[in-house]
Write a structure and sequence with these properties.
The chain is α+β, with helices and mostly antiparallel strands. The protein folds into two domains: 29 residues; 96 residues, Immunoglobulin-like. The protein has one helix and ten strands, in the order αββββββββββ. The strands form three sheets. Strands 1, 2, 3, 5 and 8 form a five-stranded mixed sheet that branches. The chain is elongated and about 70 Å long.
Length: 127
């Protein structure tokens, strides 16, 4: 009897935890978000950043805060080689916040090293 109760409790925790995880993945907002004085949030999901791999606009000599959130079941990362940005591997539901800054105007490429063919975009830095 005691083993049956333990099994029921364990199964209940597993089911509730799975339902919570799935609901968080389904209910995420995939559009690019700009928070006042907080920067940009990029959501990695379905092997894309924010469903469209958006261009990110920044100004020279002004750091721009970017938060990458992984809402996928697979690992992702966020890399900008020219600006020495590398989040490292992000597992499901992990996030990473960094700042990008450049003294020079230009176009910089960002990408996920796991999915470079589908997860890539541009950072446009101007005066």
């Amino acid at each position: 009897m005691k083993n049956n109760i333990i099994a029921i409790v364990a199964i209940s925790f597993t089911v509730v935890g799975t339902m919570w995880a799935v609901s968080n993945l389904i209910s995420s907002n995939d559009t690019i978000k700009t928070l006042k004085n907080a920067g940009i949030i990029l959501v990695a999901k379905d092997n894309l950043f924010n469903s469209t791999n958006p261009d990110i606009h920044a100004k020279t000599n002004i750091p721009l805060r970017i938060t990458i959130v992984n809402k996928d079941f697979t690992k992702h990362d966020f890399i900008i080689d020219q600006l020495n940005v590398n989040t490292g591997y992000l597992s499901s539901d992990q996030d990473f916040t960094t700042a990008i800054a450049s003294n020079n105007s230009g176009i910089y490429q960002y990408y996920c090293s796991f999915h470079p063919a589908t997860m890539h975009g541009r950072i446009l830095v101007d005066d």
